[in-house]
Amino acid sequence: MASVQPPVCDFGWKAPDFNLLGTDDQYWQLADIQGEKGTLVMFICNHCPYVKSIRQRLVSDVRELKALGINTIAIMSNDVADYPEDSFDNMKAIAAEFDFSFPYVLDETQAVAKAYGAICTPDFFGFNAKLELQYRGRFDESRKELAPESTRDLFKAMQQVAETGQGPREQIASMGCSIKWRSESQA
């Protein structure tokens, strides 16, 4: 399982729309989750050790961000045929187990991951109120294990976006497992 790092923030890039089925059996579009002060679009999955290591803290931080006017959605884009742990039924189980307060949606065709340029899990896209990209960085300095006295990079960046409409100029790229793309014969 190779780890990859996405590129750093392309400030001002506009969030592409989507229409994806969530674990709550509702379809979600970007307008449905747009926050008053900003929107966090994150690509996660169930099986990735990088995601597993931050999942509980991520759920907690997202709750705090909601109070600041930042809404969040999690998108799962992996090929579920090759990675059955990431199946829709398992997504529902994870969302329930960790009490996700945000939509967890399936990008079955992987078109949304491609539109966003997502390359790993976790991959974070933090937008301001105008849906302009302001953060494309890491959750914190943890990798597969919790780093002592972690810095909360994602939380602090999105807090800054909520307060000023702009993300930090200095960002450290996220790191995680590559998105598991479907083979051309499945597409």
Summarize the structure in words.
With 187 residues, this protein is α+β, with helices and mostly antiparallel strands. It has a single domain (3-178), classed as Glutaredoxin (3-Layer(aba) Sandwich), CATH 3.40.30. Helix content is 27%, strand content 21%. It has 5 helices and 10 strands. It has helices at 30-33, 49-67, 88-97, 111-116, 153-164, and strands spanning 3-4, 19-22, 27-29, 38-43, 70-76, 104-106, 120-121, 123-128, 133-135, 176-178. A 7-stranded mixed β-sheet has the order 3-2-6-5-4-8-9. The chain has a 3-stranded antiparallel β-sheet with strand order 1-10-7, covered by helices on one side. The longest helix is centred in the first third of the chain and has 19 residues, at 49-67. The radius of gyration is 15 Å and the shape is globular. The model has no long low-confidence stretch (mean pLDDT 93). Residues 9-160 form the Thioredoxin domain. This is Thioredoxin family protein.
- Tell me the fraction of residues in β-strands, as a range: 15-25%
CATH superfamily: Glutaredoxin
Indicate how many domains the architecture comprises: 1
Low-confidence stretches: none
The overall pLDDT average reads: 93
Largest sheet geometry: 7 strands, mixed
Strand order of the largest sheet: 3-2-6-5-4-8-9
In CATH terms, what is the architecture? Answer: 3-Layer(aba) Sandwich
What structural class do you assign from the helix and strand content?
A: alpha+beta
Give me the number of helical elements. Answer: 5
Q: What's the CATH first level?
A: Alpha Beta
Distance between the termini: 22 Å
Total strands: 10
Radius of gyration: 15 Å
The CATH topology comes to: Glutaredoxin
Helix content: 25-40%
SSE order, as H and E? EEEHEHEHEHEEEHE
Query: What gross morphology would you assign?
Result: globular
Protein name: Thioredoxin family protein
Organism: Methyloradius palustris
GO molecular function: antioxidant activity; oxidoreductase activity
Pfam families: AhpC-TSA (PF00578)
